[in-house]
TrEMBL record:
GO terms for biological process: proteolysis. The keyword NADP does not apply. Pfam families: Peptidase_M54. GO terms for molecular function: metallopeptidase activity; zinc ion binding. This is Peptidase M54. Keywords: Hydrolase, Metal-binding, Metalloprotease, Protease, Zinc. Gene3D superfamilies: Collagenase (Catalytic Domain).
């Protein structure tokens, strides 16, 4: 089991360490970091001037299969890796592009749980996008929340009604800022893979 934060080096690399360390603390799981490469942006839509997050995720899944040396644990069988690894290793790409998915004008991030891959972009998480002064600590905070949210989806979690919980789905930056960096009790239980009591059957 592992979580890999794949940090495109066009996103300020100085932020990758604080984000991965805080992310690991919020998830209560180890997070490894890859931050010496550029992952191509796919699916550019010239009318929207944005990138299709689904297309990038499909490419990321293909990349993982073709580059087992980057993500495969040394002691794992290659066939097993290709068939089942998405269940064990989760990859979250941090990319500079402004992202959309076909049903939304924009997304802060997107997860594809079936493939075990997710994506997050700082593009609309940074103050500059809204005409305000840059603020690295606010950006780190938002990247941690958004990354933890997408990884939560990769572990099978749905959206949560609690506006303070990481799994709450924010409609805008204010709602993202209002969230806290924690999983509520219900979401934490699901994240840890235990069965919640009210779902036990006799
Ligand atoms: Zn979500
Ligand atoms: Zn929750």
């Amino acid at each position: 089991m592992g979580i890999h934060l794949f940090w495109d080096s066009r996103v300020p690399v100085g932020l990758s360490r604080p984000v991965s360390e805080e992310l690991s603390a919020v998830l209560e799981m180890p997070v490894s970091r890859i931050d010496d490469g550029i992952f191509p942006l796919e699916g550019f839509d010239p009318v929207r001037n944005q990138y299709d997050a689904v297309k990038i995720l499909l490419k990321l899944d293909m990349f993982r299969r073709r580059m087992p040396q980057i993500f495969k644990p040394a002691d794992m069988d290659l066939d097993f890796y290709n068939k089942f690894n998405h269940l064990h290793e989760k990859i979250l790409l941090v990319t500079p592009g402004d992202l959309f998915e076909p049903l939304a004008d924009f997304v802060f991030g997107l997860a594809y749980p079936k493939l075990g891959v997710g994506i997050v972009s700082p593009h609309r998480l940074q103050n500059e996008f809204y005409g305000k002064y840059a603020d690295d600590s606010a950006l780190i905070d938002r990247l941690v929340k958004e990354s933890a949210h997408e990884i939560g989806h990769l572990f099978g979690l749905d959206h949560c009604d609690n506006p303070g919980c990481i799994m709450y789905c924010p409609r805008n930056l204010d709602e993202l800022d209002r969230k806290r960096k924690y999983f509520c009790g219900n979401c934490r239980v699901r994240l840890n893979g235990d069965t919640p009591e009210d779902e036990l059957f006799s």
